[in-house]
Automatic annotation (TrEMBL):
This is Peptidase S74 domain-containing protein. Keywords: Coiled coil. It comes from the Bacteria. Residues 64-98 form a coiled coil.
Length: 124
């Protein structure tokens, strides 16, 4: 007789089999329901007794851990980029003020030069 989930198949009724499968799938569906909306915070408890679902449980838990690590890395990179953008913005604002100041100074010098040239031309 074939053993399914540690029990011999012929001794099972369809109803018992369904209950057992539902019991095994409920923790997984809870995890997947949360994952669909971006919640990867919950851990999946791996049953001590191994059966046909053990690999699915272990794989799902590993997937959750990897996703959390990747999300944390993305958060770190995002924060670093935001800091770099802020630094560059401050630097550009400083350079812009400096350039505007120089441009205003150049305009003033051009006016002064034009006055001096006009005064010189007027004397001649």
């Amino acid at each position: 007789m074939a053993k399914i989930l540690g029990l011999e198949w012929p001794s099972w009724s369809k109803r018992h089999y369904r209950r057992l499968i539902q019991k095994k799938l409920t923790p997984l569906t809870d995890i997947y329901s949360k994952a669909v909306v971006g919640d990867f915070s919950q851990n999946l408890s791996i049953p001590e007794e191994e059966d046909e679902f053990t690999e699915i449980y272990v794989g799902t838990q590993l997937m959750l851990e990897i996703i959390r690590e990747k999300l944390a890395r993305i958060d770190d990179l995002s924060a670093n980029l935001e800091n770099k953008i802020e630094e560059k913005t401050v630097e550009l604002e400083r350079l812009n003020k400096s350039l505007v100041g120089r441009e205003l100074k150049m305009v003033g010098l051009k006016k002064e030069l034009a006055k001096q040239k006009g005064a010189k031309d007027g004397k001649s």
